[in-house]
Hints:
Layout: E1 2-7, H1 12-23, E2 26-34, H2 41-53, E3 56-61, H3 97-111, E4 116-118, H4 134-148, E5 153-155, H5 163-173, H6 176-182, E6 194-195, E7 198-199, H7 205-219
Parallel strand pairs: 1-2, 1-4, 2-3, 4-5
Antiparallel strand pairs: 6-7
Helix pairs in contact: 1-5, 3-4, 5-7
Amino acid sequence: MKKAIILFSGGQDSTTCLAYALQNGYRVTCLSFNYGQKHSIELEQSRIICEKFGVELEVVDIRGLFENSALLQSSEQNVSDNHETFKDLPASFVPGRNMIFLSIAGAKAVSRGIDTVITGVCETDYSGYPDCRQRFVDSMRNTINLATESNLIILTPLMYKSKAETWKMAKDLGVLDIIVDLSHTDYNGNRSEKHEWGYGVLDNPATVLRAKGYFEAKQNGWL
């Protein structure tokens, strides 16, 4: 059986990627990170979702590694503001996050004889993060393979999909209810409100993008 490690946040995108991997015959391990994020509730949702799918979840604690982001518990900056240092990026940008995530996932995959890592990053409908682009992912794949003399593959099933198309993909995969009820996409970690697109409050870019994509998909007749 094909094997893969999935970078798993418990959000809409990574949960869709999990369903994609399972339906394409992969035996998967989900890899989540506790990096001191404000929305640490995503780790609990990750556990619940993995139990729902019957797959293994591994959580790596790297708290204290990152800094200078409104997404971290140590920050008081609003996640909807511009970044204090990288003025053209949103405050929620975490410098080096996906670089570290892919490095750890790649090292674990190579060590275990697994040739595929799957990540839900997307450059079509994202928050402006430079580490969500395909050329960055390609660069990381090349670096990992050079460092380990391996042939690791990094799959990005959502790379060129809009958020509306990601909703459609979830529906086509038969996991729409799981996305709505269990996944978490709210930078402030707020699950106090339930909407037809899921839990969250429209006071941060992640939730706004999720809701906007849902209604666009619904308008297109995809849901």
